[in-house]
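Before surveying the methods themselves, we first show a specimen of the format, giving the amino acid sequence and backbone structure tokens:

:::
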Amino acid sequence: MAELTIQISDELAQRLEPLQNRLPELLWQLLDVANLPTNSQPTIKTETTDIPAVYQEVLDFLIKRPTPEEIITFKVSPQAQSRLSELLEKNRAATLSPMELAELDVYEQLEHMMILLKARALKRD
């Protein structure tokens, strides 16, 4: 098994510490979401335009370290909800492009994650 060493800020290291046992799994998920090649020459992306807006929206929410109450009441923006409705309609009509299918998958993964977060937040209240 290969070992990877990276330099990160102290703040990021503190935030990643509780997840250190899951980092390989999370990196695989990141590669799946970003559709990055895993066996070819690595590429460095400096833009986040390929990441669905809803993903960025959830990340922005989580990076603010929300309270359990804020997690419980969190909802994506009306724009994200509208986009999800559009994708679901296209899915029902079987007219999704491969990119749209990947985007819909991101919505599904984020929904699952938020359900788990809200369940844990409810246990803390």
Q: What stands out?
A: Residues 98-124 form the longest helix (27 residues). Residues 17 and 23 are 10 Å apart (CA to CA). The helical segments are 10-16, 23-34, 53-63, 68-73, 78-92, 98-124. Residues 41-48 have pLDDT under 50 and may be disordered.
